[in-house]
Specification:
Radius of gyration: 24 Å
Distance between the termini: 88 Å
Structural class: mainly alpha
């Protein structure tokens, strides 16, 4: 009796033009979650573990996702850049989206001084 289980799922199970559909969704500002939902709709099931495995093992899948992520971030940056003078634009919402979705962070200045303490240095020549 053969107990090998079900064969591994691969991106070959998706529609022939899956890359085009995924890239298009990202190019409209889509997220990884939206792409996962799209793949779920094609396959009938799709897990985060399978996503992670495909990102590691399936070069075409990984490169398509990386390209898509770049296009999504560019789309969101364009929205922010082109709405700078739009008084109805919710810049705070846009900014929070960029922080949460793309890992943007507020810059932090770290003071490496001695917090107000004075240090006296005496130079001695020999």
């Amino acid at each position: 009796m053969n107990n090998r289980g079900a064969p591994k799922k691969s991106p070959e199970l998706m529609p022939e033009d899956w890359q085009k559909a995924v890239v298009q969704l990202y190019a409209e500002g889509g997220s990884d979650k939206e792409v996962k939902a799209l793949i779920y709709s094609w396959l009938g099931s799709f897990s985060n573990d399978l996503w992670d495995r495909w990102m590691k093992e399936e070069e075409d899948f990984s490169e398509t996702i990386k390209k898509g992520r770049m296009l999504s971030e560019a789309w969101w940056e364009h929205v922010g850049r082109t709405n700078l003078e739009n008084v109805k634009f919710n810049a705070t919402l846009w900014y929070m989206n960029m922080k949460n979705r793309f890992g943007w962070a507020d810059s932090q200045k770290i003071d490496h001084t001695t917090a107000g303490e004075k240090i006296e240095i005496n130079l001695v020549r020999g």
